[in-house]
């Protein structure tokens, strides 16, 4: 079949093609508008020390301290994946814990001492209270590790104010995806219709 034949087929059913594409775009826009309001919090945590250890020895440009901070940062990330720690954070914030608590906090270490934690909720105040509670609970767990040794320069978790953003899928990507899906469906619908008619 030549290109002119394909053009003739699609031109003949151009109204059906346009209607299908518009329908998909319309339902995509409708879905985007009906999304429940959800916010995402981005909380930045820094691993610090309670005090500075004074020593006359060469410290290799604090290499071993940075290495220890990195290991403790990994521990903090693992804590935020633990149902026990997540439940404690929610209790401290006065909120009820979610069903799947292991996936609520998405934590990743950005550097030796910096951890980024993201989590989603439908209420801005809940996100703020959970952020403050997370810092408090993590420091409580850190202090429990130092209960026997009582080291003066032990780890401390320092948290900043969370950055809140809209967690819903943006309008433009939904519009583009809906358009391309509609284009794909309309393309094959017209070809299938032409095939069935030609077969008869």
Structural notes for this entry:
The chain has 200 residues and is an alpha+beta fold. Helices cover 55% and strands 16% of the residues. The protein contains 6 helices and 5 strands. It has helices spanning 3-12, 14-33, 63-79, 83-93, 124-145, 171-199, and strands at 39-49, 106-109, 114-121, 155-159, 163-166. Strands 1, 2, 3, 4 and 5 form a 5-stranded antiparallel sheet that branches. Helix 2 (14-33) packs antiparallel against helix 6 (171-199) and helix 4 crosses helix 5 (124-145). Residues 55-61 have low confidence and may be disordered.
Short description:
The protein has 200 residues and is of the alpha+beta class. Helix content is 55%, strand content 16%. A hairpin with a 4-residue loop joins β2 and β3.
